[in-house]
Amino acid sequence: MKTVLVQNIGVLATAQGKSAHSGEKQGEIAQLKDAWVLIEDGVIAKVGTGAAPEAAETIDAGGNLVTPGLVDAHTHLIFGGWRQNELGLKLHGASYLDIQNAGGGIQSTTNATRGASEEELAAKAEKALDEMLRFGTTTCEAKSGYGLATEHELKELRVIRDLNARHPIDLVATFMGAHLVPAEYKENREEYVRLVCEEMLPLVKEQGIAEFCDVFCEADTFTVEESRRILEAGLKYGLRPKIHADEIEAIGGSRLAGELRAISAEHLIVCPKEGIESMAKGGTIACLLPATSFNLGAVFAPARDMVSAGVPVAMATDFNPGSCPCLNMQFVINLGCLKYKLTPEEVLTAVTLNAAAAIDRADKVGTVEPGKLGDLVIWDAPDLDYICYRVGSNLARTVIKKGAVV
Ligand code: NIG
Ligand code: FE
Q1: pLDDT tens string 353-372
Q2: For the range 230-234, what are the long-range contacts, defined as Cβ-Cβ under 8 Å and sequence gap of 24 or more?
């Protein structure tokens, strides 16, 4: 058995438990001073303070803050090309949907993704994963959704599967064939919805290459009724629902999320009161993406109202080439405090335990407790407030995945 001791921890800050925390509990964080963590074969065996046990290998935290590894619960990791050309259009007043309706946006990334080989997509995504790891992310969700054709959606999911096998970051795959109705189906959207439900989903299930089914429920994208059909078809094939809802217009996506008892609803920038109530009732986690609001120049989701209503709040990057070319969870942490007005404790729960719960991994990661994976970040920081308040630096000093420095 390989034992690793992380010792000389100034403060160990972690939520506790194996399920999402909401309301007051979201802000309950254990803060152990002068702590140590013993990891056996990649799994946390013991956590304590004061005199530490012996171990084959020791990692000195230097009296710094240690937290669980960060969980990025929402990314569009696999894509061809970038879209820096849209910056100028936006600066001249074009909206996200203007660009999308003019053939830019998701469709242009789809064209680039269809033209890329599996190897090219993997090499590009691997570079992003390396960078994420350096910023403290140790578990990451990744969606398909830039293939928008059976062959290319499956290609994206295979890239996620292969990267998961070879990269230290653990990946969790989501099928998002319903990201946009692609250009060739514009006049026949019904046929595209049928393709997603009757051709893509059965193959995703057969190949066992995704756990969740996500839909972009938005004006000019998929209606509430189309989203319902697709997510119900996903459920039939064993994929739990996620839903991009209320990102630009509140057309009813958050209400649908609660009705379907979706594991999470994403964005929720303009989420109305009845959407929050529906999610609270359905046990849906609000997966908020503040770096997207920042990049779109949009308002920020009503995170405090969600906490007050008892909806567990998670936060993620939404890393993608359009609405959020940012993969840095530390920036998300900053925005969680500065824009959502969440406390540092609520923010830590949002990017660890609640994020893990949003991808059904709260039994394995998201807290520093016996039985969970030995995924830790040693910060160049004395306490939790410090990482929330410092902006623009990479404060992750050492990242540990399954007990190994990565
Ligand atoms: O979450 N909203 C839909 N999907 C992404 C954006 C994708 C893109 O612009 O390429 C998002 O914001
Ligand atoms: Fe997204």
Answers
A1: 999 999 999 999 999 999 99
A2: 230/178, 230/193, 230/196, 230/197, 231/256, 231/260, 231/262, 232/260, 233/196, 233/197, 233/198, 233/201, 234/175, 234/201
The angle, 0 to 180 degrees and rounded to 10, between the axes of the packed helices 150-166 and 105-114 is: 70
Residue type, 235: L
Pocket test for ligand 1, best of 99, 222, 296, 320 (most atoms within 8 A of CB): 320
Helix axes 344-351, 329-338, angle to 10 degrees: 140
Shortest-distance atom of ligand 1 to CA 267: 1
CB 141 less than 6 A from any atom of ligand 1? no
Helix (H, G, I), strand (E, B) or coil at 37: strand
Give the closest residue to 394 by CA, choosing from 346, 348, 328, 347: 328
Nearest protein Cα to ligand 1, atom 1: 318
The answer to whether the CB of 214 is under 6 A from ligand 1 is no
* Residues whose CB is less than 8 angstroms from the CB of residue 42 and which lie 6 or more positions away in sequence, other chains included: 2, 373, 374, 402, 403, 404
Q: pLDDT tens digits for 267-323?
A: 999 999 999 999 999 999 999 999 999 999 999 999 999 999 999 999 999 999 999
What is the length of the chain? 406
The distance of Cα 130 from the centroid of its chain, to the nearest Å, equals: 16
Residue 231's contacts (CB-CB under 8 Å, 6 or more residues apart) are: 213, 215, 241, 243, 256, 260, 262
Indicate yes or no: pTM above 0.90.
yes
d(CA 132, CA 148): 26
- CB-based burial of residue 346 (10 Å sphere; 0-12 exposed, 13-18 middle, 19+ buried)? buried
Number of alpha carbons in the 13 Å side-chain half-sphere of residue 11: 15
* Non-local CB neighbours of 181 within 8 Å, separated by 6+ positions: 189, 192, 221, 222
DSSP string, 137-165: EEEEEEE--S--SHHHHHHHHHHHHHHHH
- H/E stretch holding 355 reads helix 353-358
- 290 Cβ closer than 6 Å to some ligand 1 atom: no
368, HSE (Cβ side, Cα atoms, 13 Å): 32
Q: Across the chain, which distance is largest between two alpha carbons, in Å? A: 69
- Tell me the mean pLDDT in the region 255-268: 98
